[in-house]
Amino acid sequence: MQPKPRALSILDTVTAVLFVLATLMVFLYAPEEAVMGQVQRVFYFHVASAWVGMLGFLVAAVSGVVYLVKGDRKWDIVGLAAIEISLVFFFVAIVMGAIWAKPVWGEWWTWDPRLTTASIVELVYAAYIMLRQGIEDPDRRARFGAVYAILGFISVPLTFVSIRIFRTIHPVVIGNSDPTAKGSFDMSPKMLQTFLFSLFVFSFVFADLLWHRIRLGRLADKVEELRLKVTQ
Amino acid sequence: MQTLQAPPSTREASRSAYPAFLRALGAIVWKDLAAELRSRELLSAMFVFALLVILIFNFALELEPKTRASVTSGVLWVTFAFAGTLGLNRSMAMEKDRGCLDGLLLAPVDRSAIYFGKAIGNLVFMGIVELIVLPVYSVLYSTNLFQPGLLLVILLGSVGYVAVGTLLASMAVQTRTRDVLLPILLFPLVIPVLVAAVKGSSGFLQGADMADIWPWINLLIVYDVIFTAVAFMVFDYVVEE
Amino acid sequence: MIVVNKLVKRFGPKTVLRGLDFRVDEGEFVAILGPNGAGKTTFLRILSSLSRPSLGEVRIAGHRLPAEASVVRRLLGVVSHMPLLYGDLTAEENLRFYARMYGVSHAEQRITEVLELVGLASRRRDLVRTFSRGMQQRLAIGRAVLHDPEVMLFDEPHTGLDQDACIMLDNVLREVAARGRTVVMTSHDLARLADLASRFDVLSRGIIADSVQRANIDPNNLLAFYRKSLEN
Predict the structure, then answer these.
(1) C58 strand-pairing partners
(2) How many domains is chain C built from?
(3) Helix (H, G, I), strand (E, B) or coil at C207
(4) Nearest to A148 by CA among B120, B118, B90, B188
(5) Contact with chain A for residue C180, Cβ under 8 A
């Protein structure tokens, strides 16, 4: 078996350090927001998690296309890894969103566009996993996964637009138009820095987990190969 | 015994006027319609199912005259969406049993002819169910549902639904979990259609301004075009091994 | 007519065909024997263009598969153990459908001819779901010869048929073969094949292990030959 590459070990350490730094920044560096208080700090990781989750979908869709064109199995592993990780990131984002929502809006959940789209995307991820589980043949599993990832990815902007034409009460922090939307706020420079840094760190976390998961996928394939050799 | 040798012209390509693609497409649509007209299993199932859904909504939502207007399009589209899955499943299952999908794949025709043939067949079935449900609903709730705007929205919505649904049904039918899997795969992707169709239908039913309804129709058209194109491009990968 | 070079077929980590070489000249009737799971059906699926090779070359009448698949399909008639017929349509409607799919000219005349050939002329207006398995199989052969293909592929066509049906099937097969078509058939039934085939190949462990011409072997020794090939 190939041992864990050094680059990956370094990435692990770097990511861990960055994560600690980001957490410190969120709690110590960023100022407290005037209206919402401490709970607003959830924002940094919440949005970072969601954006990176969407990035994962893009990665999965692109790997899907490449897999269909080239037929190389490693792209399938990348796609699956990306979706699995995004599934978790999105779930974390949704939960953090709920934690933020309760004190600010008074409810755990609202049906506003972003949240609704996020839950739909989450369901697409879950459907992807379920689709794969129902197929025995690895080649077909990979092909169908790729197709569904592509379709799913294309549907997301359309879904978002369709729901967005509904009224929103979700704070539009970036590119905001309606200042009366509850919970929206303008970011001071320190907040912006914290936010961008969180985004940066979460991308690292994603890449690190992705690499680990791809490795895991490859090793699993290898095990399967060896198992067949032994039994034949 | 009769001679087996076919007349020489059989070996040449058909000399009929339109190309092989349209011929195959027509053959598949005709086959689905003919088989269904014979057994009528599918249509009656979809129809009864649709009626049951409307009935359940009657109790679940208290469709009184006041609330009715705002809720009608929602009820209609949920009905269509669920009845639609029945149709999609059955249409593909027919090919899977007895291995008929292989029969289609063995023929010297473009795979997209199979996709479009099945999709058009599915659209026709959905259309038939819709055309039966509309008057029934109109009578049950004294609402006139036969307005051109509404019919347009129903058409656009059904096209989008069927374009994605046919592709996903082809995938679902090749898995272990089959029927159960199709709604799980389909509904998240088809949300834009449902949202736009419901809002568009509502708009027409409540006599809203065209300016308000237009975005929804646009969205439906965009969705239909994008997904029909993507689905037919990707169909090969779903049926070829 | 059929040339196969080093054909490899993998399903994920599992390799079913391992560099198979195979050659059939025009007009030959080749029977492929082999234990279950040897890859006979997989091989036939590849020849019939339903499945793609992982590696290696397959040519039928000089055309490469899968690149020139649509040209090849016109030349192939395939009968598998599934009838590939629509139960809710009549026999003639089924044939009409396939006639249109294959672009057969003078379709009505041809359909009548074919129904006579397979002995189902009297049942042409009956729904296929009322047919016995034997009748369905005969109609399936009718479907396969409708477009007058040069090459015929049969995958265990006798499966599930009773004695009478088998005898009828054999008559039809003989007639089909007598017209100078190239035929490849897989089967378990050695006794049956002894009459029909001009050559016997044994597919074992992913390759053609052995081959013998009918002229060179006493039909009584077929079983021994088969067993011996498997041991090697």
Answers:
(1) C4, C65
(2) 1
(3) strand
(4) B188
(5) no
Q: CB–CB of C113 and B104 under 8 A?
A: no
Asked whether the beta carbons of residue C11 and residue A137 sit closer than 8 angstroms, the reply is: yes
**Which structural domain, as residue segments, surrounds residue A117?**
37-171+184-231
Domain that holds residue C74: 2-231
Give pTM, 2 decimals.
Answer: 0.86
ipTM (interface pTM): 0.85
Residue of B237, B238, B239, B240 to mutate, interface with A, max A Cβ within 10 Å: B237
Per DSSP, the three-state class of C203 is: strand
pLDDT (tens, 9 = 90+) of chain C, 232 residues, equals 888 888 888 887 788 888 889 899 888 889 888 887 788 889 999 999 998 898 889 999 889 888 888 889 999 999 987 888 988 889 999 999 999 999 888 889 999 999 988 888 898 899 998 998 888 888 998 899 899 898 999 998 888 788 888 888 888 888 877 777 889 998 877 777 777 788 888 888 888 888 888 777 777 777 777 877 777 6
Q: Residue A182: left (phi > 0), alpha (psi -120 to 50), or beta?
A: beta
Tokens standing for C6? Answer: 């080093």
CB contact under 8 A, B230 and A134: no
Max Cα-Cα span within chain C? 52
How many Cα atoms are found within 13 Å in the side-chain-facing hemisphere of A73? 16
Say how many domains are in chain A.
Answer: 1
Within 13 Å, how many C-alpha atoms sit on residue B32's CB side? 30
Neighbours of B69 (CB within 10 A): 14
Distance from CA of A199 to the nearest CA of B (A): 27
All residues of chain B having their beta carbon less than 8 Å from the beta carbon of residue C143 are: 103
Q: Do C113 and B102 touch (CB under 8 A)?
A: no
- CATH number of C73's domain: 3.40.50.300
Is C202 strand, coil or helix?
strand
- Beta-carbon contacts below 8 Å between A and B: 90
Q: Do C13 and A139 touch (CB under 8 A)?
A: no
Residue A14 lies in a domain: no
| b/e sequence A202-232, b meaning 16+ C-beta within 10 Å | bbbbbbbbbbbbbbebeeebeeeeeeeeeee
Reduced to 3 states, what is the DSSP secondary structure of residue A12? helix
Please count the residue pairs, one from chain B and one from chain C, whose beta carbons lie less than 8 angstroms apart.
Answer: 119
